[in-house]
């Protein structure tokens, strides 16, 4: 459902990371969901008005992408999405909506954002779906917070289109860092060859399974204490637990974990200053039984530190600018991501603090991001610590066994190692 078209004004060209997600999604749709639980007494009209307010504030939430030969793809003002509003009783669980959303592509001429509201007299679950060219998980959190403000009656002021994170200058390109790709994979012929391999599931016949679990704050604090004592982090513990659980199910000696690295704090940016500011780091985690859980987690954290630098982000964007030129073959983006050869994504948005109260509206819980990149056996874990719990949402191909219960048990056990 759409409002009338509000115009076709060009906003700006896409930045390097945005182009990567746009071109890749032309072949293998890659979008993600963020879920928020709101406690408030509101009507269906109130929720619809709040979604309209955040689309009015954030230009990319009402944007489409125009692609013309020989010209870089451009964001333009499209028709804002009218939210789909249902009674909570219409679904057994909101995860059914997420499953459906991950199997549903965006329309060619429509905006790259959707919202679904499940509500009753006490509150709602709000499922937001973003094309990965317009947002990452941290940007999605800003949108959720603005929805709570709009529901509380605050007037949201319109903002400018956020600038992309891009190359620092137009001088000579530095040698690309091994953050998203390695040097041999940057040859265009090799990238196109990778794109042609049978690496991906058919989006149109795909079945996605979604599952959630949680750890309460007291256990998270125990886990954080154990991580500090072992020179590691909660995030690395989650990555190790996920890798070992996946390896057990897949009977593999190593699991390659893709971690999202937020560039904003490295560049001194707030999460509202950049819509797409995360890059990918790949770290292999061995199942060698001679290595203990916390030793693995410590090694993982050290490797992630090496990838977490502004220079790596700059070099990555320069490499993407060089490869994804105006009018390039979209398969180059598929080759870039297919060449990563990863098994599992862990996207941890960190500890966002206590639940939020805005007037009589309380933001009680958050889940996400939940995504699927369409690699054959790709698993995706989204992690947020917020309010009373650390919540984990798992999205996986329906034909693969869940690893989520084992991940939670392993994290609990790690508190006493």
What do you see in this structure?
The protein has 417 residues and is of the alpha+beta class. The chain contains 12 helices and 15 strands. It has helices spanning 16-27, 44-57, 95-102, 137-151, 188-195, 217-229, 234-250, 264-267, 293-307, 310-323, 331-338, 404-414, and strands at 10-13, 31-39, 63-68, 71-77, 84-87, 113-120, 123-131, 208-216, 254-262, 278-286, 344-351, 356-358, 361-371, 379-386, 389-397. The strands form 3 sheets. Strands 5-6-7-2-13-12 form a 6-stranded mixed beta sheet, sandwiched between helices. Strands 8-15-14-11-9-10 form a 6-stranded mixed beta sheet, with helices on both faces. β14 (379-386) and β15 (389-397) form a beta hairpin. Residues 1-7 and 168-185 have low confidence and may be disordered.
Quick gist of this model?
33% of the residues lie in helices and 27% in strands. It is α+β, with helices and mostly antiparallel strands.
Defining traits:
33% helix; six-stranded mixed sheet; 417 residues; alpha+beta; single chain; disordered N terminus; 12 helices; 27% strand; globular
Topology diagram in text:
Blueprint: E1 10-13, H1 16-27, E2 31-39, H2 44-57, E3 63-68, E4 71-77, E5 84-87, H3 95-102, E6 113-120, E7 123-131, H4 137-151, H5 188-195, E8 208-216, H6 217-229, H7 234-250, E9 254-262, H8 264-267, E10 278-286, H9 293-307, H10 310-323, H11 331-338, E11 344-351, E12 356-358, E13 361-371, E14 379-386, E15 389-397, H12 404-414
Parallel strand pairs: 5-6, 9-11, 11-14
Antiparallel strand pairs: 1-4, 2-7, 2-13, 3-4, 6-7, 8-15, 9-10, 12-13, 14-15
């Amino acid at each position: 459902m759409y409002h009338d078209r509000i115009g076709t004004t060009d906003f700006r060209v896409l930045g390097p990371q945005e182009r990567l997600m746009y071109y890749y999604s032309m072949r293998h749709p890659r979008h993600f969901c963020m879920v928020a639980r709101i406690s408030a007494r509101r009507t269906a009209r109130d929720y619809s008005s709040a979604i309209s307010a955040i689309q009015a504030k954030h230009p990319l939430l009402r944007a489409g992408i125009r692609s013309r030969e020989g010209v870089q793809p451009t964001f333009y003002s499209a028709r804002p999405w009218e939210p789909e509003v249902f009674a909570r009783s219409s679904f057994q669980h909101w995860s059914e909506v997420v499953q459906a959303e991950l199997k549903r592509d965006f329309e060619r001429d429509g905006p790259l954002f959707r919202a679904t509201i499940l509500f009753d007299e006490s509150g709602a679950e709000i499922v937001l779906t973003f094309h990965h060219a317009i947002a990452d998980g941290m940007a999605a959190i800003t949108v959720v917070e603005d929805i709570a403000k709009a529901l509380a009656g605050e007037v949201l002021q319109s903002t400018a289109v956020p600038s992309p994170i891009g190359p620092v200058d137009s001088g000579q390109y530095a040698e690309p860092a091994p953050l998203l790709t390695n040097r041999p994979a940057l040859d265009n012929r090799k990238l196109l060859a990778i794109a042609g391999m049978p690496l991906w599931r058919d989006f149109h016949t795909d079945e996605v399974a979604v599952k959630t679990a949680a750890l309460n704050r007291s256990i998270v604090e125990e886990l954080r204490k154990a991580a500090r004592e072992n020179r590691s982090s909660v995030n690395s513990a989650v990555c190790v637990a996920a890798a070992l659980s996946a390896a057990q199910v897949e009977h593999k000696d190593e699991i390659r974990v893709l971690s999202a690295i937020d560039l904003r704090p490295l560049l001194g940016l707030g999460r509202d200053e950049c819509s797409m500011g995360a890059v990918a780091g790949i770290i292999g985690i061995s199942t060698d039984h001679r290595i203990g859980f916390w030793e693995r987690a410590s090694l993982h954290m050290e490797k992630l530190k090496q990838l977490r630098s502004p220079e790596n982000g700059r070099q990555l964007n320069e490499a993407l600018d060089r490869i994804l030129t105006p009018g390039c073959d979209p398969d180059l983006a598929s080759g870039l991501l297919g060449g990563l050869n990863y098994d599992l994504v862990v996207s941890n948005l960190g500890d966002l603090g206590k639940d939020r109260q805005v007037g009589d509206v309380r933001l009680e819980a958050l889940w996400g991001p939940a995504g699927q990149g369409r690699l054959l056996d790709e698993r995706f874990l989204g992690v947020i610590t917020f309010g009373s719990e650390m919540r984990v949402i798992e999205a996986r191909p329906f034909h693969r066994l869940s690893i989520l219960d084992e991940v939670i048990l392993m994290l609990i056990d790690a508190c006493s190692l």
